Amino acid sequence: MKLFHINHDSTRLLIFFCGFYTDENCFLEFDNLTSDILFVYDYSSLDFSDLGYFDYSPYTEINLIAYSYGVFACNIAYNYLPSIDNSVAIAGTIYPIDETFGIKPKIYDLMLNAFNFDVVQNFKAKMEINSNGKIKEAKRTVENLWEELISIKNYVEENEIDKNFEFDKVIITKKDKIIPYNSQKFFYEGHRNVIELDVGHFPFFEFKNFDEILESYGR
Fold first, then answer.
1. What is the pTM of this model?
2. What phi and psi values does residue 15 have, to the nearest 5 degrees?
3. Are 17 and 67 contacting, i.e. CB atoms less than 8 angstroms apart?
4. Topology of 2-215 in CATH?
5. Could you tell me which of 126, 137, 134 has the C-alpha nearest to residue 26?
6. CA geometry: angle 74, 76, 80, nearest 5 deg
7. CA–CA gap between residue 207 and residue 212 (Å, rounded)
8. What pLDDT score was predicted for residue 217?
9. Which sequence spans correspond to the domains of the chain?
10. DSSP 30
């Protein structure tokens, strides 16, 4: 796991768990300078202890957004998180590889076994389908992304996944070509605050900035 901190000298902090492929570069255009941001990315290591050493004392309000595989990462990093005022899960579940609630194992293994630069570009293109914009390139290597896939697969095979973190709000992407709509819908069935958007896997272009995501209850 890696951290990237953006300091705007704010008393608010947004903790943002990125998804597979992404890093802070994919999301900087949605920063409207009202919060400091702590980006969490690169799950080639699933050791989240550095989150516990981060200095949260300057902040009077701490919010959290977890995107795609960041939902899985947030759920296993919960012991290192501070008290959260408002949290949103977007286009992901706590099960990264699962027949019912995540990406199907056969599809995951096909991507893993054929992984190269073209597969990465194809993955990014699938993220952009029905997403109303072009995603900025992440500054990550093919080797690092392959290691991330291996790390996640090993974790799933070696650990039982339990729900540890309860999100205040969930955004489901109905035209998702990465994590199927039904996987998201079935997992969050009964959740008190689910918003369904008629877009693809990267729904951020539907919002002006991160604050609008955090405030968009009932949208």
1. 0.96
2. -90, 120
3. yes
4. Rossmann fold (3.40.50)
5. 137
6. 75
7. 6
8. 54
9. 2-215
10. G
